[in-house]
Amino acid sequence: MGYLHYFCIEQNITVMKYRNLGTTNEQLSAIGLGCMGMSFAYGPTDEKESIATLEKALDLGVNFWDTADMYGNGANEELISKVLVPNRDKVFIATKFGFRFKDGAAGPSGTANTYFDGSPAWIKIAVENSLRRLRIDTIDLYYAHRVDPNVPIEDTVGAMAELVKEGKVRYLGLSEASPASIIKANAVHPIAALQSEYSLLTRDVEKEILETVRNLGISLVPYSPLARGLFSNTLNLDSLSADDFRRTLPRNQGEHAANNARLIAEFALLAQDKQCSPIQLALAWVLAQGNDIIPIPGTKKRKYLEENAGAIDVQLSDSDLNTIEDILQKYPNVGARYSEGAMALVNN
Fold this sequence. Notes:
Layout: E1 6-9, E2 12-15, E3 18-20, E4 27-29, E5 33-34, H1 47-60, E6 64-66, H2 75-84, E7 92-97, E8 99-101, E9 114-116, H3 120-134, E10 139-144, H4 153-165, E11 169-175, H5 179-188, E12 191-197, H6 209-216, E13 219-223, H7 254-273, H8 278-287, H9 302-309, H10 318-330, H11 340-343
Parallel strand pairs: 5-6, 6-7, 7-10, 10-11, 11-12, 12-13
Antiparallel strand pairs: 1-2, 3-4, 8-9
C-alpha cells in the first residue's frame, strides 16, 4: 500500500496521516471509514453515491474500511466488494460477525428479532459468508461484534484463531468487550483492535477499558465518534426517514435532546474560533486522546468523507482541550447511547 496521500479541502493541501494497528506494522489511516450507513440503519441508500464515496476514500488515502455481516444482512459487504476487489492492495478491510436475525430481516441490535451467536460453529459459517460477499481470500481484521454471554470468550477467540491459521483472517478484534473479556481473549490469541463507541458524548471506555487495551498493546477503534451525526450541529430528527434508528436513541429524546442541542451549539462556536467545522473539532478531540486510537466515522456521502478527513489538520492545545471539558461539564445530561436492550450487549 502507498501511504503518502494528498488531497484538497477548502483549498488547503492536507497529507493523510497513519497509525499502527496494535503492535503490528500495519499502517492504517488515522481516520477510517465506517460503511454501515451505506446499506443499513440510516434511512435511504444510494449505491451510486456510496461507490463514489468508497472511490473518494482511495483518493484521500483513507485505507481503513469497516463493515459487518449484519449491515443490511450482508448487503454492505457486497456493496464494498465492488470497489474493494479491484483495489485490494489499497484497502485494509475489517468486518465483524455474530449478530443474527430470527426471520432473516436485518434490524438494529437489542431488538426482539436480533440475537448474538459467538459459537465456534457459527464462526466457521460466518467467515465463509463474509469472504464470499467481499469476494476476497483473506479478511484483514475480523471482529467478534459482541461478546456472547452464553459462550466462553476463550472458545469464541479460539475458533477465530483457527481462521488465522487457515489464512482466512490476518488479525483478530473484539467489539464492546469488558476488560475481563479482553484479557481472557488476548491470552488465547493476540487481539489487535477493540472497536467500541467513543466520542465526546460517550466516554465509557475511559474508566477501565482504555487502560486495559493500552497495557496489552491493542488499538482502540472508536465507532460513532461524532455521536451519530449530532456533532454536525445540523442534525434534524424530524427530517430523518421513519426507519432511521437515530429517532429511537435515548439521547435524541426529550430533556437529553435539549441538553445536547445546547452543548453542541456552544461547541460549534469553539469550532468557529478554531476555523474548522464542529465535526472536524469532534474528530480532532478523539484523535488527540492517543496515537493508538483510530476512529472510523461513518458516512455515505463524499462531501462528509472529505470533511471528516480534514480533521487530521486540526491541532488542539491544552487550552482547547480544557475548554472542551468545560463545555461538557456544563451540559451533563447527555442521555444513554443505546436502548436498554442494546446496552445489555455491551461491556460483557
